[in-house]
Amino acid sequence: MEKITVKTTIDAGIEKVWLYFTSAEFIKQWNNASPDWHTPEASNDLSVGGSFSYKMAAKDGSFSFDFEGIYDDVQENKHIAYTIADGRKVEVFFEVADDKTKVTETFEAESQNPIDMQRAGWQAILDNFKKLVEDN
């Protein structure tokens, strides 16, 4: 299975980046790939064996889906690994880089959409995350 990596460097400390990445109240604010989508509901049990669920929805109400999974590894301020409901694996690394935080996400591609489209979507979400952290 092909793996795709997206990354960003955020002008904020690692504790703040971790909080915004893992807290349901913040996930609802950044988890969308375009302005016409949003995440009206999110739950997150950030522990090994814990689950998460983010309802991703078109703002016009035309379509929604649940992005869900189970955590395989959680190392605070360092690493998160999880398995999405469809069985694909995702890893997220958090690294201090000078006074900034580098976030690197690697995920197994799905077979329904082109690789470039998947990469662009995940990168757009990560870019929204960076903007929210840096603007607050």
Topology diagram in text:
Elements: E1 3-10, H1 14-22, H2 24-30, E2 37-44, E3 51-58, E4 64-75, E5 79-84, E6 89-97, E7 100-108, H3 115-135
Antiparallel strand pairs: 1-7, 2-3, 3-4, 4-5, 5-6, 6-7
Helix pairs in contact: 1-2
User: Helical element count?
Assistant: 3
Question: What summary fits the major beta sheet?
Answer: 7 strands, antiparallel
CATH class: Alpha Beta
Number of strands: 7
How many domains, as an integer?
A: 1
Class per helix and strand makeup: alpha+beta
Q: Which ranges are low-confidence, i.e. pLDDT below 50, for 5 or more consecutive residues?
A: none
Helix content: 25-40%
> Helices and strands, in N-to-C order?
EHHEEEEEEH
**Binned strand content:** 35-45%
Largest beta sheet: strand ordering: 1-7-6-5-4-3-2
CATH fold description: Alpha-D-Glucose-1,6-Bisphosphate, Chain A, domain 4
Distance between the termini: 37 Å
By CATH's scheme, which homologous superfamily applies? Answer: START domain
Average of per-residue pLDDT values = 97
CATH architecture: 2-Layer Sandwich
Rg measurement, Å: 14 Å
| Envelope shape | globular
